[in-house]
Amino acid sequence: MAHAVEVNRASVLDGLAHGFLGRIGGVSTGDVAGLNVGLGSGDDSARIAENRGRAVDAVLPGARLVTVYQVHSPDCVTVGAEPWPESARPRADALVTDRRDLLLGILTADCAPVLLADREAGVIGAAHAGWKGAIAGVTDRTIEAMRALGAHRGRIVAAVGPCITQASYEVDAGFHGRFAAADAANTRFFEPGREGHWQFDLAGYVVSRLEAAGVGEIERLRLDTYAAPRRFFSFRRSTHRGEAAYGRQISLIGLR
Predict the structure, then answer these.
(1) d(C-alpha 225, C-alpha 229), whole Å
(2) Tell me: the pLDDT tens digits for 175-211?
(3) 243 within a domain of the structure (yes/no)
(4) Which of 19, 211, 234, 242 has its CA 20 to 30 A from that of 116?
(5) Residue 220 belongs to some domain of the structure
């Protein structure tokens, strides 16, 4: 029996076409079973296309999906009246637009997806915030790109979707030291773990960057990709299980 696409939504984005999707409701099989949308996952291209179509239909039917070639950077691109074709995606990790009938899409498999909007200005954004992009300022660049389209910091609302949570995210001392060197206050996002290791609160760090940037309202969904194998894909979980491939889920936002 086919399952409907699961769409997780944020109250701060009520009234906007948006959703944080997982793996439920797709046609892929094997290690990437479900709603796998990752072009680089090794999955069958026809299944990926079907899953992407289902994702669009679940959030904003008839819209054009726009994504980027994600590289764990802080770079953000603006989508205009003529979006690039899928085969010519720019290398970046965030998108913004003020155009209607487009769906901005960010793929994740433990990293934090961030959806943003200024309803009054009619400007939206989506960011892929893994630890590398987060510490490099991907959310800051997204906010600046939104401002260039007329958004105001204080009017922007943001939601941080499903990602690996602190209980599941073990890191080593070198990782901890990198964040501490960037800002001593970053140590508040780490809890001691087993000897020589720490548990990192990625979503908490991303929220702090949004707060520091002056975002008006922020919501954190607190859904753990690692700990929910039936609902979400997880790179780390797939690695720990020795699976040959891992799927990617998508988070979407658009203007009607």
Answers:
(1) 7
(2) 999 999 999 999 999 999 999 999 999 999 999 999 9
(3) yes
(4) 234
(5) no
Residue 86: pLDDT above 60? Answer: yes
Our CA angle for 238, 32, 61, nearest 5°, is 130
Sequence-distant (6+) residues with CB within 8 A of 245 are: 30, 31, 32, 41, 42, 43, 238
What is the CATH number for 149?
A: 3.60.140.10
Taking all residues of the chain, what is their mean pLDDT, rounded to a whole number? 97
In a domain, 29, yes or no: yes
**Domain hosting residue 35, numbered range:** 7-154+229-254
Where does the chain have alpha helices with state H? 45-59, 131-136, 138-148, 173-182, 202-212, 235-241
In a domain, 150, yes or no: yes
For 56, the 3-state DSSP assignment is helix
The model's pLDDT over 55-79, given as tens digits with 9 standing for 90+, comes to: 999 999 999 999 999 999 999 999 9
pTM for the whole thing? 0.97
Report how far residue 206's alpha carbon sits from residue 183's, in angstroms, rounded to the nearest whole number: 14
In this prediction, residue 3 carries a pLDDT of: 83
* Count of the separate structural domains present in the chain: 1
Q: What is the DSSP string of 217-238?
A: EEEE---BTTT-TTT---HHHH
pLDDT at residue 1, rounded to an integer = 42
Backbone angles phi, psi at 28, to 5 degrees: -70, 160
